[in-house]
From TrEMBL:
Organism (species): Vagococcus proximus
Transmembrane segments: 44-60, 72-89, 95-123, 135-155, 161-178, 206-227, 247-267, 279-296, 302-324, 336-358, 370-390
Protein name according to UniProt: MFS transporter
InterPro entries recorded: MFS, MFS_dom, MFS_Efflux_Transporters, MFS_trans_sf
Pfam family, one: MFS_1
SUPFAM superfamilies registered for this protein in UniProt: MFS general substrate transporter
Length: 400
């Protein structure tokens, strides 16, 4: 069994892996400090990090063949901690963009490697449970730090950046407590297969480049594409409609994390009931969440919407990664997890460009219109999944 101190270190690192979006509540205030920066450029503080995370995720699976997963994960935490520099130097928007790139690279290294580690050394329902815990712990970290960041931003947006000091602490914990070898847990005896059994199981697995796996990766990208609408636009949407300040936005965004926490702990059991409708269920939650923010221009609309979006994210991230890692050969798991992290980052990074381009043709209220578009995209995706019965056919294909 894994040593308690190693699991503690891993949990600490999971906690900070996705915290780079914690500056979202400060976007409106940062915009006031840099009035010459356009709103689309302002949103690059989040999407630049996503682009960086995408780039790192593409090759981090290959890196794991040469250096320990501990090194990759802790290095990622230390890169995220460079965000602290934003607390001390506040006169350069370019510097903030550079910090976003560094933090995004760190997050990409962590979010790609932690699931790969879990998927390599856990199987079956235990794998799904651990992946769910990973999503939940990342959401807990995002929730607490986003809420804290929104509160600190009342006194000045630069205080939001001071929160990234916790990534430095988590990185140090991982450096001292995680083992140096890649393998952090030996599988239980009853989970070990004989050579012939393993070979037979591997023959049934899909290639990373198969149309089915590529489709699941596309669905993973759509998770963050739809989720990013709230992360990028909620603060500006609230400011435009005079609904609330940065503290309220931070609290509302933290509810996304709360929803993800709930879903991460229960989606494994729920998927047993939903079976081939699990993905549809997740996207229905996402669509209802964006619709709530779109049509209910009140505080209650914010909180209902963000909780539903968070529950969707927790459900879909756990389910798609479980389907991916269960569908490919064991040797391909690190690369597959890296691609998963890459496409989700790409979906997040491209979202502002796509939303703003389309919304600009419809209305001057880019942020509010983006929520209407996210709702529409969600409805279309649900219809496609329902008509094609994609998940049901996938489960039969990879013999769950």
């Amino acid at each position: 069994m894994i040593k308690p101190k190693s699991m503690f270190a891993l949990f600490c690192l999971m906690f900070v892996a996705g915290c780079t979006v914690a500056i979202a509540p400060s976007l409106a205030k940062i915009g006031l400090s840099f009035p010459d920066v356009s709103r689309s450029t302002l949103q690059m503080l989040l999407s630049f990090g996503a682009f960086s995370s995408f780039g790192v995720s593409l090759f981090v699976g290959k890196i794991q063949q040469y250096i320990s997963q501990k090194t990759v994960i802790t290095a990622g935490a230390f890169l995220i901690s460079t965000g602290m520099i934003g607390f001390f130097y506040t006169t350069s928007f370019t510097l903030l963009l550079v910090l976003s790139l560094l933090m995004g690279a760190g997050s990409g290294a962590m979010t790609a490697t932690i699931p790969a580690l879990l998927s390599t050394y856990f199987v079956g329902e235990k794998r799904s449970i651990m992946l769910g815990r990973n999503v939940s712990l990342q959401a807990i970290g995002s929730m607490l730090l986003t809420s804290l960041g929104g509160t600190l931003a009342i006194y000045g947006w630069r205080y939001n950046y001071l929160m990234f000091a916790i990534a430095l602490v988590s990185g140090a914990v991982g450096l001292f407590l995680l083992p140096n070898d890649k393998k952090i847990e030996n599988k239980d005896d009853d989970e070990e297969a004989t050579g012939s059994e393993l070979a037979s199981e591997e023959d049934d697995k899909l290639s990373m480049t198969s149309p089915t796996i590529l489709t699941v990766l596309m669905l993973a990208a759509m998770i963050m594409f739809l989720l990013s609408c709230s992360q990028n636009n909620l603060a500006i949407h609230a400011s435009d409609l005079n609904i609330g300040n940065s503290s309220l936005v931070g609290l509302a965004l933290s509810c996304e994390s709360l929803g993800a926490i709930i879903a991460g702990f229960f989606i494994t059991k729920l998927s047993v009931v939903l079976k081939g409708n699990t993905l549809i269920f997740g996207y229905v939650l996402m669509t209802l969440g964006n619709a709530s923010i779109s049509f209910i221009h009140l505080t209650v609309g914010f909180f209902i919407g963000t909780i539903l979006i968070g529950m969707s994210m927790g459900s879909l991230m756990t389910r798609t990664l479980y389907l991916l890692t269960s569908g490919v050969k064991k040797s391909a798991i690190p690369m597959t997890a890296g691609l998963f992290s890459a496409v989700t980052s790409l979906g997040f990074a491209l979202a502002p460009l796509i939303y703003n381009s389309i919304a600009g043709l419809i209305s001057d209220s880019l942020a509010t219109t983006s929520f209407y578009l996210a709702t529409l995209f969600g409805v279309i995706l649900i219809l496609i999944l329902a008509v094609t019965r994609f998940e049901t056919r996938l489960l039969k294909l990879i013999k769950f």
